[in-house]
């Protein structure tokens, strides 16, 4: 569990303590849709209570919902809408409702938390999204620093300027 996930879990606990619904874990303006993949911690997954108790169709539905959630805005969230869940998972509306109704680690929605925006958010995916956003910001800052430190030395002319000068001499 990384620091982002610890912070998110603390926010959930705080909201529950006061009978409130937590705010979304990833701000809507923070986007990971350009990232084609999310981290799937296989060791954590196969050692989880969810994996031990969920049927194959629940596992498949959950992975489909995680992938769908990754591409949403805000990241790591899905609509609280069984029609969407059925479409995303490829299961019938009746079947997805039955699987979700079971609840707990035998549900494809296991781990999702309803937030104040009315959507269901997944804390582990949200932590991965926040980590990806932070890493992108760090890489961008490092690139900006590199570009600033590689400015042209004084006395050098922009590319092509020397060609214009030579052309003018020959005319």
Textual characterization of the structure:
The structure is a single chain. The protein has eight helices and three strands. By secondary structure, it is mainly alpha-helical. Strands 1-3-2 form a three-stranded antiparallel beta sheet. Helix 1 crosses helix 7 (123-149) and helix 5 crosses helix 6 (93-102). The N and C termini lie far apart (70 Å). The mean pLDDT is 89.
Summarize the structure.
The protein is mainly alpha-helical. The chain has 8 helices and 3 strands.
Major pleated sheet = 3 strands, antiparallel
Distance between the termini: 70 Å
List the strand order in the largest sheet: 1-3-2
User: What ranges have pLDDT less than 50 throughout 5 or more consecutive residues?
Assistant: none
The H-and-E topology, N to C, reads as: HHHHEHHEEHH
The total beta strand count reads: 3
Mean pLDDT: 89
β-strand amount: under 5%
The helix content, as a percent range, equals 55-70%
**Gyration radius from CA atoms, angstroms:** 24 Å
Shape verdict: globular
| Helix vs. strand class | mainly alpha
Helical stretch tally: 8
